Structure formats: structure tokens, C-alpha cells
Amino acid sequence: RYRPLEGVRVVDLTNMVAGPTAGVALAEQGADVIAVRRPHGDWVTPIWLSVNWGKKAILTGIKNPDGKKRFVDLLASADVLLSSQRPGALDRLGLSDAELREINPNLIYGSESYASLGTSWAGRRGFEQIAQAVTGAMHVHSEGLGLEAPTVTPALMNDHLTGYLLAIGVVAALAEREAHGGFWRVATSLTRCSTLGSELLGPVGLD
User: Fold this and answer.
1) How far is CA 37 from CA 71, 86, 149, 194, 196, in A?
2) Which residues contact 83 (CB under 8 A, 6 or more apart)?
3) DSSP for the chain?
4) What burial class does residue 127 get, using C-beta atoms within 10 Å of its C-beta: 0-12 exposed, 13-18 middle, 19+ buried?
5) Phi, psi of 124 (to 5 degrees)
6) Active-site residue list
7) For residue range 151-190, what is the model confidence (pLDDT) as tens digits?
8) How distant, in Å, are the alpha carbons of 83, 149, 164 from that of 110?
9) CB 161 within 8 A of CB 135
10) Which residues, 6+ apart, have CB-to-CB distance to 35 below 8 Å?
11) What's the rounded Cα separation, in Å, for the pair 66 and 63?
12) How far apart are CA 110 and CA 171, in angstroms?
């Protein structure tokens, strides 16, 4: 009669595919997911529709004082924050890990980025296709296809896998918080996921 994440509130500050996919996965399991969107909207409406069903939505700009206050008020009563902002973006708004912990000592902060935190590429921007290129997934996929140049896989493997891995990490953190309390940090990246995903790929061949 009940889904496992009913009663869990998630503030979803993500965009495009990977981050929002995590929010959809949590909403499917009963979480109350509130998507925070900029007032001018998203630039790819079909993608927005495909990864935002099951969520509530508010329009506010967290860079202005009123919008930030509204956002902080949401965080204070939330269980989870999902973010796909570029590493350092929230810090510049006064929302670093330490400041988020002050706002909500029992918050689970889950982030999705292009490259893994703590690496030399951590601050870079990137997306699905770039991750496929730099990790060799594009090369492995294209072997044997008889193409003049490598091409990406016919599915958004990194976006969706990274989104689901983020959701799994959040659920694991919720279980740990239930047992031990406290602030928990979960991080995923497209390049790390693509590196792992390459193990699932192989040359297709035309024979």
C-alpha cells in the first residue's frame, strides 16, 4: 500500500538529464520531490518533460535574495538536496557543504557533475557526449561499424546510469542517516560512470 520513500522530501536543483533522472527515480519510490527552476524555464522542453514527471515545481532564482531565502527555507525542512550545479557554484552563493550543514544538520546532499570531485577536472563543464569521448566509450562503441569517425552510443548511457547511481547513493545515505543521524554527502559524475560503463560495451562488427 505504501512506497518506501513516502515522507521523504527532496529539493531538486538539477537540469538536463542525469540529475533530474535521480529525482524521478526517488519520486517513483514515493518521495515528495520539489524541482526548483529558474523563472525563464528550461531550454529543452521535451527533455524537461521526460525527466520531471512525478515532481512538484517552483520557479525561483536562487541568485537573488528573495529566491535564495525561499530556497534555504525549503532546505531547512528537506531530507535531500539534489544538485547538478557546477562544482563551486553553490559555494559562491553561500551554500557550501559546511553552510548547508548549518541550515540542516540532517541533510543528505547528492550532487551530479561532469567529472569526479577531487580530480584535476573537477571544475570542468561537460555533458554526456564529452564524457563518452574522453573515457574511450565512443571509440569502443564505434569499432567495427565501418565509420569514418567515431560516434556516440545510441542511448544516453552516462546520463541515465549516473542519475540512477545518484538515486541509489541517496537511498543508501538515507538508511545510514536513519541509523546514525547527521549530514551525508553523495557525489556522482558522468566521466566516472562512463569509465565503468565502458566495461559494458564491445565492438559491434558488421559481419
Assistant:
1) 11, 16, 38, 27, 31
2) 13, 14, 19, 90, 109, 110, 111, 112
3) ---TTTT-EEEEE--TTHHHHHHHHHHHTT-EEEEEE-TT--S-HHHHHHT-TT-EEEE--TTSHHHHHHHHHHHHT-SEEEE-SPTTHHHHTT--HHHHHHH-TT-EEEEEESS-TTSTTTT----HHHHHHHTTHHHHHHTTS--SS----SS-HHHHHHHHHHHHHHHHHHHHHHHH-S-EEEEEEHHHHHHHHGGG-------
4) middle
5) -75, 155
6) 159
7) 888 788 889 899 999 999 999 999 999 999 999 999 999 9
8) 6, 36, 12
9) no
10) 12, 14, 20, 23, 52, 55, 56, 57, 58
11) 9
12) 10
Q: Does the pTM of the predicted model rise above 0.85? A: yes
CA count, 13 A, side-chain hemisphere, 205: 3
Encode pLDDT of 64-86 as tens digits: 899 999 999 999 999 999 999 88
> For residue 97, which amino acid is it?
D
Q: Three cell numbers at 39?
A: 523563472
The backbone torsions φ and ψ at residue 173, rounded to the nearest 5 degrees and listed phi first, read -65, -35
